Amino acid sequence: MNSNYQLVKAIQYARTQIAQGGSESALLDAQLLLQHILGCDRQWLYMHPEHPMTDTEWDSYRELVERRRKGEPIAYILGQREFWSLTLDVNATTLIPRPDTERLVEAALALDLPHTAKVLELGTGTGAIALALASERPEWQIDAVDYSAQAVQLAQGNGKRLKLPQVTVFQSDWFSEVKQTDYDLIISNPPYIAAEDMHLEQGDLRYEPHSALVAADKGFADLDHIISCSRGYLKAQSWVMVEHGFAQGAKVREIFTEKGYKKVNTLTDYANLDRVTYAQCSNPNG
């Protein structure tokens, strides 16, 4: 290839290479990588299909295409992912925010919470959930914690860049450093995949930190811990809401019920699969 390689041909080349690696969104991946290299938007690509690339641009593009062909997640290559219309910085120390987790945000926003609700997010990662909630409810006071110091730093950076100062991010092993005991909502997308799950060796999951994906007790250990311990950090009539696997809804409802929660309900994701379960704690210390 030479420095006169046109964008339309570059995209065709990249699409073929990326598709060979198994991506189901090869064309979109090719376009996003090229936008990243050129610093342009997709509309500009459409309007300038015959624009020639420089040697440097072409070499850089091929390097990114090869990384994607090998299976590296597009979000890690670009260093960003959009979630709830927010552009978040991401890296390999955290999970990549996914569209299904937006159902968790939708469900939280639909709750009848106080105007100045106090919210705790456990396992915040990039800060996606906490920052999405803050963008919609600027009056809420939101604490977001993560066990990983790198994740805390990343989430703090996202909050600062997005100018959402009502989100306070700090390091904590679940509740270990949480001092407040009067939250209106505790929300989490915790690890819920069983260690032996074959999906861990497929797609983006191969590159994401297993500590943020895998839980003991066939994927239920962290869910059980959060549901059990949340009672000591809630006001009366407050809520706990968790994301979980599509086959875990019945068991999560059972855990909530066994721990004395009321109004237990499960919501489906965009594929109509069980994804979010929440319940009310009427007697937190009971």
CATH topology grouping of the largest domain: Rossmann fold
Radius of gyration, rounded? 21 Å
Q: In the CATH hierarchy, what is the superfamily of the largest domain?
A: Vaccinia Virus protein VP39
Query: In whole angstroms, how far apart are the ends?
Result: 70 Å
The average pLDDT is: 90
> At CATH's second level, what is the architecture of the largest domain?
3-Layer(aba) Sandwich
Query: What sort of overall outline do the alpha carbons produce when their principal axes are compared?
Result: elongated
What does this structure look like?
- The protein is α/β, with parallel strands linked by helices and 286 residues long.
- It folds into two domains: 7-71, Helicase, Ruva Protein, domain 3 (Orthogonal Bundle); 84-281, 3-Layer(aba) Sandwich (Rossmann fold).
- Helix content is 36%, strand content 19%.
- It contains ten helices and nine strands.
- It has a seven-stranded mixed sheet, sandwiched between helices. The protein has a two-stranded antiparallel ribbon with strand order 1-2.
- Helix 9 links the parallel strand 6 (183-188) and strand 7 (234-243).
- The model has no long low-confidence stretch (mean pLDDT 90).
